[in-house]
Amino acid sequence: MAAADAVRRVRRLAEVDPDAHQERLARAxxxxxxxxxxxxxxxxxxxxxxxxxEELYLILAEESRSNIAAYxxxxxxxxxxxADILEPLGRTTEAGALRRLRRTGDPTEVRRMILRGx
Length: 118
Prior knowledge:
The longest helix has 22 residues, at 18-39. This protein has one domain (2-117). It has helices spanning 2-16, 18-39, 43-63, 72-86, 92-104, 107-117. By secondary structure, it is mainly α.
């Protein structure tokens, strides 16, 4: 799968130089999760990938206090994707809770839910 290969390549780059490649890794993870969701396969791996992307976006936002808003749209898109992946896994209550949290904007609670849902 091309998306999984891309994630592996970018992950290796991020391990060597996180400052230069962490954002790219988050995007690659979210993209891979979206492809899996659209294809309807490997949703557990997609769930793990999108949760990792969300965590990376939170880290990037925390590290970039002066530019925190730059990561908000990507983080919010990843949260929506996370909820979309939970639903076909039969985890509709969690999906609904995640969507409600996304609207409230409490990143601490969102982070707790992401880590619990992995």
